[in-house]
Amino acid sequence: MVTLHHCLPSITGQHRRPVFPFKQRPIRCAAAAERQELFNRIAPVYDNLNDLFSLGNHRIWKRMAVSWCGAKEGDNVLDLCCGSGDLAFLLSEKVGPHGQVTALDFSKEQLQIAASRQQVRSKPCYKNIKWVEGNAVDLPFSNSYFDAITIGYGLRNVVDRPKAIEEMYRVLKDGSKVSVLDFNKSTHSITTSIQDWVIDYVIVPVASGHGLASEYEYLKNSIKEYLTGDELEKLALEAGFSSAKHFEIGGGFMGNLVATR
Ligand SMILES: C[S@@+](CC[C@H](N)C(=O)[O-])C[C@H]1O[C@@H](n2cnc3c(N)ncnc32)[C@H](O)[C@@H]1O
To answer: Which residues pair with 66 in a beta bridge?
Structure first.
């Protein structure tokens, strides 16, 4: 079983040294603590419902997000808000056994599922993933530490998004990229209406069969309170990134921001 906190191996070389030993700082914001609880509660069914609701397409979008982050063999990369680890496993295949993947989340339950999936998977490269319990707005890593970052369906759920983007900028090396996959907050009313309909009449009823109606009702508001592609690009540029481009994917229902430090 992979331990969650102080699991990164010590790496020599000044700029490759994480800030450790690391103790998770308590989540002080009530809204963030509520979201942490929510993701703990949905953890047991999260993967199955993702497959069902996206008809398996989330696997394609995650591959696209990983390819856009520019990770290559031997890189030291970070997956933020990793949940049960889908993007971390894909990153691991990209960077190979000589690379290193750090996957961070603030939900213990999601991390436990990720660690158990790692145990039953046989590809040797998967041994290069370390799971870290932590907060995306207060990353326990030194400056300019990573060659690439992914964050899938995470930024929308982070309460202080500007701070999270600033943290990504801080821990990325110059010239490296972050790839931010999430639902698209579309500016087209037809797309928004279809998205709302699917949430109200498919996602919430199915989730209520698992006793998780309110958890999935949260999805609709979280998309409404999220940022449009243009706003995401602006947020990244304000955090210091030299370029930022948002791509609509999945028929406009999903979006992926790519920002270069
Ligand atoms: C919708 S899940 C996405 C999981 C995974 N990336 C995927 O694409 O399947 C969002 C994840 O973000 C995590 N999360 C939300 N806010 C966070 C924060 N401030 N710090 C760390 N993790 C956070 C939640 O615990 C949850 O596991």
So the answer is: none
Provide DSSP, 166-185.
Answer: HHHHHHEEEEEEEEEEEE--
Distance 139 CA to ligand 1 centre (A): 14
CATH code for position 115 = 3.40.50.150
pLDDT at position 219 is: 92
Number of domains in the chain: 1
Show the tokens assigned to 140: 């326990």
Q: What's the pLDDT score for residue 31?
A: 86
Range of the domain at 102: 14-260
Query: Is 250 part of any domain?
Result: yes
The atom number, within ligand 1, closest to the CA of 82 reads 6
Q: How far is it, in rounded angstroms, from Cα 43 to Cα 233?
A: 30
Look at residue 107 and tell me if it is in a domain: yes
Residue nearest to atom 26 of ligand 1 (CA): 83
Amino acid 30: pLDDT: 82
Determine, yes or no, domain membership for 3.
no
| Cα(85) to centroid(ligand 1), Å | 10
Please report the pLDDT score of residue 57 as a whole number.
95
- List the strands of the sheet with 76-80, edge to edge: 129-133, 100-105, 76-80, 146-152, 172-183, 254-260, 243-249
> Ligand 1 centre and the CA of 83: distance in Å?
5
- Which atom of ligand 1 is nearest the CA belonging to 39? 25
Low-confidence ranges of the chain (pLDDT < 70): 1-28
Ligand 1 atom index nearest CA of 36? 25
Please give all residues whose beta carbon lies within 6 A of any atom in ligand 1, as ranges: 32, 35, 39, 81-83, 86-87, 105-107, 110, 135-137, 152-154, 157-158
Task: Supply the pLDDT for residue 3.
Answer: 38
